[in-house]
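Hi R.,

Here's the chain you asked about this morning:
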Amino acid sequence: MRMFYKTVMLEVKKYVKPIFGTTSPQFKHVGGLEITNVKDR
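And here is the predicted structure, written out as tokens:
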């Protein structure tokens, strides 16, 4: 399930960047989100 969210997050970033531009508030909202791998316990 985590891989699904990571994939969606990357797709959203790729979608927002060319449409709104890197200086837009929309990109700043999602551009600052970090994508990290979480180890299972």
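One quick note: The longest helix spans residues 2-20.

Cheers,
M.
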